[in-house]
Amino acid sequence: MKYIYIKKKIRLIVGAIGLGILFLFSACEGDLEPKNFNVIDPSTFFKTESDAQALTNAVYDRFNTGWTGTFLNYKGFFISDMVGGQFFIVWTPPEWVRLNDFTWSALTQNEYAETYFAVVPSVAFATNVIEDIKGIDIPDDVKAGYIAQVRTARALMTLFGYDLYGPLPLVVDPAITKNPFTEFDPVRWTKAEMDTFIETELIEAQADLVSKNDLPSAKYGALTKGAAMTGLMKLYLMQKNWAKVKAITADIMLEGYSLEQTTGSVFSVLNEANDEVIWAQPRTSNENDGPVNFTVTSSVPGDYGTDAFPVGTVQGWGGLRVPWEMYDAYDDQDERKALFPISWLDANGVETDMRANGTLVSGALYLKYDIDPNRQGTAHGNDYVFYRYADVLLARAEALNELTAVDSEAIQLVQEIRDRSNAGPIPASATASQSAFRDFILLERRKELLGEGWSRQDLIRHGKFLDYARNRVLETVPDAAEKHLLFPIPQDAINANPKIEQNPGY
Length: 506
Hints:
Elements: H1 11-28, H2 42-45, H3 49-61, H4 75-83, E1 88-89, H5 94-101, H6 113-134, H7 140-165, H8 174-177, H9 191-205, H10 225-239, H11 242-252, E2 277-281, H12 295-299, E3 320-323, H13 324-327, E4 343-345, E5 351-353, E6 363-364, E7 384-388, H14 389-403, H15 408-420, H16 434-448, H17 455-461, H18 465-471, H19 491-496
Antiparallel strand pairs: 1-3, 2-7, 3-6, 4-5
C-alpha cells in the first residue's frame, strides 16, 4: 500500500507553510506567483504527530512537482539518459530535439528548467518544514525521525540539482525562509559548500533514520539509512573519492538488501517493495490518487500488442527508444535484452520483427517497467525505483578497481550482476588491466542501469561524456563541448536575481 503520497491529506499543510516560501522565491526565482494563505496561522496549526507526518509528506511530494515528476520519473531520468546516449526521443517538439542534439541554452526552458525551478524552492520549503516539526510537542525520538527524513530529502534534492547545474543559490537559513516579507537574492554556493552540506546532512540524518528491515510496511516510500547512504555513495562517485565509495558501499551491504532473481522483476508492478529496492517513489495508476508512471506509455506505439495485451489495449505515445548501438551491446543470451522488445503483434495478430521490417528506425522499445494490468489509460502504477542494490555493487566494484587494479572482489561483484541475467563470464580481455576493467565496469553499468537516470553522470565521471556524444551512431553531436557537462542556469532565474552567475559557455 502507498501511504506516503496521499495528496489530499497535505493540501492544507502545503498552504500553511507555503507563505514564506512563495514570498521569498517570488523575489529570487521569478516564476512563482505569491498566494495569500493568511487564513491559517502556521504558529498554531501544527500540534500533533499527524501534523508532523503530513509536513513530511509535503516534502516527499516535492519530488513529484508537475505531472511528469520533475525530479524522478519521466523528465528526471529522460534528461540524463537521453544526453547520455541510452535513450533517443523520436518526438519532434523542440524541447526533445534539443536534448538529442545538444542545442539547449539558457533561453530554452521546457526540457530542464522546470527541474531547476523545483530544486531551489524545494530546498527552502524543506528548511521551513524542519523548523515547523521542531515546534511540535511530540516525543523527541519521534520528532527526530521526521526531521531526519526531511533533511535527507533536502540533501537528495540538492544533490540532484548539483549534478545537473553545478553549485546552486540555495537558502537554508530559516531566519530567511520563514519570513514571508524577506527580500533576499542568494548567490551560488561554492563547490566545497555544496559538497559539505550534502555530506553533512546525509551523515547526520542516519542516526535517526530506520534501517530497511525496521521500516513498517505502512511507511513504504520513506527514506531510510540505506537511502541516505546511497545518496552519499552518489556524491562520492561524483567526487571520485574511491576510499569513501568503498567504505559507504560496505555499510550499505550490511543493511539487508539483496539482488532479485532478474533485473526486470525489480521494476515489476507485481513485485514492489522487493529486497533490491533501496528507495522507490510510489506510483499509482489513478492520477487522482497521486503521481503515476508514464514510462511504458512513453515507449510503446499505439498499435503495440502481445498475447497478454491485445493490440489497442495498451495506450502509447511511441516516443522513447533504446538506440541500436546500446541494444546491440547485449549478447543474445543476456536476459536483460528482452526488456527492450523489437517484436510485437502487428495489426493482423502476427508476431513481427519490427526492426527487420523498418518500423523501428531509432531503436528498441523500453519496457524495463512492465505493463500494469490495472493501468488506467496512459497511467501505470509501477513504483519508480531511484536507488537499488545492483547499482551499489557496481559502484563498489568500480571503487575497488580504482584502489587496487583488477581487484578480485570487484570481479566477483560484476560477475554476480552478470550471472543473474545469464550474461556469461567476464572475458579475460576485460581483466587484462585496470583500464580495461574500468571500461568493462562502465559498460556493465550502462547495460544493467539503462534508463534509470545515471548514464550522463557515469560518462562524465569516466571522462567519456563528450567523446561519446561526438561519436555515437545516432544523432552525433560534433559540437559537444565542455559547457555541456552542466546545464545552464535558466535565464529567467538570472533575470530575477542578477547575483546568480551563469555556467561557463552559456
